[in-house]
Write a structure and sequence with these properties.
alpha/beta, Rossmann fold, 2 domains, 10 helices, about 50% helix
């Protein structure tokens, strides 16, 4: 079988740096794939379109039979697949640390299905954008960033030197994944509320419509109240300092 070289492209800084530098090094690339969850930041979709124009090559968009919202609200869970025979909640609701259905159903499953189909015809060679300071995550595929010794900071600096800034996302967040992820850090959620009020309003609406709260410790309403109280306390401290 002939080799078939596939780059897994998430749109983040690491996979972007990997893709761009592989092309600069004239490394073999037969296809570039992007697993679309349907819940990326609007700026991320803009970035992917910019990368596609910059490299002048197609990017294959892989999608599950439903997007994030379809699985969250509409997916019917068979009672046979649950320990509770009286399970009647519709949709999978928010993912959690224990049940990360989003990663599996929207990325891993469709990428694996794609790989199985390609492997019927080719010796599949897959390139994954894991940085050198994350090499503990490396498994059996190929990881050019680790080979090059590139850290996450190296990747971001490199992408910015090529004119990519994600509309400022990496100036606000240390990591950029699905904007509505309940597993993101508290400082990321605080930044989301402050910088993207429209998305925060959507997050509130989603939390009101589903059967499980956004996080085990906080609903979106409770997070909003928490952040507002923190903002008020900070405002008072600034005013008190200015008055002294």
């Amino acid at each position: 079988m002939n080799d078939y070289h596939v780059v897994s492209f998430s749109g983040g800084k690491d996979s972007t740096a990997m893709l761009l530098h592989m092309l600069e090094l004239s490394m073999p690339i037969d296809e570039i794939i992007f697993c679309d969850t349907g819940a990326e930041f609007p700026q991320m979709y803009d970035h992917i379109a910019r990368v596609k124009k910059y490299i002048g090559r197609p990017i294959t968009r892989l999608k599950a039979e439903r997007d994030f919202y379809g699985f969250m609200f509409d997916y019917e869970v068979s009672a046979r697949r649950t320990k509770n025979a009286s399970y009647h909640n519709k949709g999978l609701s928010w993912p959690s640390a224990r049940i990360r259905w989003c990663t599996r159903r929207l990325k891993a499953d469709i990428a694996d299905k794609y790989a199985r189909e390609r492997a019927k015809e080719y010796n599949l060679v897959q390139y994954i954008g894991i940085a050198a300071d994350e090499q503990h995550r490396a498994k059996t595929k190929r990881y050019p960033l680790i080979d090059w010794g590139w850290t996450e900071k190296n990747c971001l600096d490199y992408c910015k030197s090529r004119g990519f800034d994600w509309g400022g996302l990496y100036d606000i967040f240390s990591r950029v994944s699905c904007w509505l992820c309940p597993l993101q850090r508290m400082d990321s959620l605080r930044a989301l509320r402050h910088n993207f009020p429209d998305l925060w309003t959507t997050l509130l609406d989603l939390d009101h419509k589903t059967w499980r709260t956004f996080r085990p410790d906080y609903s979106v309403d409770e997070l909003g109240a928490k952040f507002a109280a923190e903002d008020e306390m900070e405002h008072r401290q600034v005013n008190l300092f200015d008055a002294v």
